[in-house]
Amino acid sequence: MISLKRYIESRPEEILKTLCASYRASLTVVGTGATQICPHLGEDFQHSLLHLRDQLSPDLDPETDARIEDLALARGQHASAVVADAIALLDAVVDVQDLDVEEDLRRFREFERTGEAVRLEDVKAWVRSWGTGNELPRPIPRKVG
After folding, report:
1. What are the CA-CA distances from residue 81 to residues 75, 76, 92 (Å)?
2. Which of helix, strand or coil describes residue 76?
């Protein structure tokens, strides 16, 4: 008898595609139900869920797929293990359990008011400088757009 764990590990891509298809179907059903239950709010909710559904796909763009395959080959792992490691790393950096939506909204309102933000290019340069002899100072917000 084959164990469930071994079966899943032997078919990671197949399992991922099935999981994504199931989740996408669930989003469609929940959106449809919301519209039927509460028409005045449900349509916006349904639209949001359908947008999310359309973004969920086990298929990657060719460039990202190639990068994952290259990493997997270099590490002697399945591509799914590389993706799992990336998700674990993201979870270690971003605490999705304690999202502070109010703080995000406060910062967004501040951006709308001032038009100031830290440019992504500045953040990338700052991070690249870490641990070097020429570490850059933390970027400061400035007018963007």
Report:
1. 10, 10, 16
2. coil
- In this predicted model, what pLDDT tens digit does every residue of 4-23 receive, in sequence order? 667 667 777 777 777 777 77
Please, which residues bridge with residue 142 across strands? 117
Q: Any idea what DSSP says for residue 93?
A: H
Which helix (DSSP H) or strand (DSSP E) does residue 24 occupy?
helix 12-37
Cα separation, 29 vs 78, whole angstroms = 33
Identify the helix (H) or strand (E) that includes residue 79: helix 79-93
> What letter represents residue 121's amino acid?
E
Please return the burial class of 45, using the count of CB atoms within 10 Å of its CB with bins 0-12, 13-18 and 19+.
middle
Residues 6 or more apart from 69 whose CB is under 8 A from it?
79
Give domain limits for the chain: 1-59, 60-96, 100-145
Query: What is the pTM assigned to this prediction?
Result: 0.36
Q: How far apart are CA 114 and CA 143, in angstroms?
A: 8
Structure tokens at 57: 């796909």
